[in-house]
Amino acid sequence: MIHSKANRRYQFIINTIMLLVTVIMIAPLVLLFMSSVSSEASLLNNGYSFWPEEFSLSAYQYILANGQTIFRAYGVTILVTIVGTSINLLLCSMAAYALSIRKLPFRNVISFFIFFTMLFNGGLVPSYLMWTSTFHIKNTIWALIIPNFLCGAMNIILIRTYFMTSIPEALYEAAKIDGASYLYIFRRIAVPMGVPIFVTVGLFSGLGYWNDWTNGLYYINDAKLYSIQTLLNKMIQDIQALQANATAASSGAAMQIPTVSVRMAIAFVALAPILAIYPFLQKYFAEGIAMGAVKG
Amino acid sequence: MVTGLKKNKKKDKLTWVQFKQYIPLYLMLLPALIYLFINNYIPMTGIVVAFKKYSKKKGIYGSKWNGFENFEYLFKNDAGLIVRNTLLYNIVFIVLGMVVGVTLAILITDVLSKRLKKLYQSAIMLPFLISIVIVSYIVFAFLSVENGMFNNSILKPLGLSPVQWYAEPKYWPFILTFVNIWKGCGYGTLIYIAGIVGIDPSFYEAAKLDGATKWQQITKITIPSLVPALITMTMLSLGRIFASDFGLFYQVPQNSGALFSVTQTIDTYVYRALISSGGIGRSAAAGFFQSVVGFALVMGANALVRRISRDNAMF
Question: Is residue B63 part of a domain?
Answer without folding.
Answer: no
